Amino acid sequence: MTRTLTLRRPDDWHLHLRDGAMLRAVLPETSRHFGRAIVMPNLVPPVVTAADAVAYRDRILAALPEGAEFTPLMTLYLTETTDPADLRAAAQSGLITAVKLYPAGATTNSASGVRDFDKVMAVLETMAEIDLPLCVHGEVTDPAIDIFDREAVFIDTVLDPLRRRVPDLRVVMEHITTSDGVDYVSAQPDGKMGATITTHHLIIDRNHILVGGIKPHYYCLPVAKRARHRDALVAAAISGDARFFLGTDSAPHTDPNKLSVCGCAGVFSASNTMSCLAEVFDRAGALDKLEGFSSLNGPAFYGLAPNTATLTLTHGDPVSYPAHIQTEDGPVTLFDPGFPLHWRVAS
Ligand code: DOR
Ligand code: ZN
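That is the input. Now the predicted structure with zinc ion docked in place:
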């Protein structure tokens, strides 16, 4: 008998849609399966003001395929000159759902991020007052800190002190990659702190990047860690703990930009994420927890209703996805989980 699984339509709580030709190419890959996505603001130049967010939202809506039922949830990029009044108005009009904190220099297009937290305290206090969540890229940028330790050090030296300074601020630690991240978030009171977990960090560990030749398509930030950290992420995702939810961090870069002497960080996983996740949860004997992770916990954290539409997956012969999607800027390689995908999203 065919196994099927029907979920509320999932959402992606951390997504890079880019702009222009790349936006037009990748947006259908997300809108096919997902009802909403938190859209990252790290464009060049970044989405900093309410006016920037309105314009970007309009470009996203204009790029949606005919008939798509997809709502972009906009974010602002926090800078040391962000105006609390502009941000407050953007939140209160419903334009934005969150604000994104990039420590300056942490990742792609993060140069305008925060260096001195004293300079953003007024904004963070405004956010706490109006209950607007802060999404955090949780890595320190100190060149002396080993790249594999940057998340754990960030928790101790930046995140925890920041949360003590603004205890009412609700924070999402984005794309956690370590058991340190899981442990920290698990220890916080419900509702104040959440964490997104990507598809690829549930599947790869650092050996996938470095063993048997360097594999740039598995390189992202935060970089994948040891297998035991990957296993801690899977345990968190399948635990049913509502603090953990899906944020794919699907981050397209063209192949020439990935396969370079200084390749870009990012894994593009929008197209096959639901098949990958079903495989991971099935292997863990936890298919019943997939709906919570991908469709319920995120809306609950953000104070939104789950989607009313559903998505059905069926189990059968391996489903094949194109290895690349084509864009006017060049091909973008799709995440390869390294195992067959038996769960197909029914059309
Ligand atoms: O791998 C990543 N790619 N990590 C990030 O934080 C940014 C993203 C991007 O924008 O390409
Ligand atoms: Zn990201």
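Residues 3-345 form a domain with the TIM Barrel fold (CATH 3.20.20.140).
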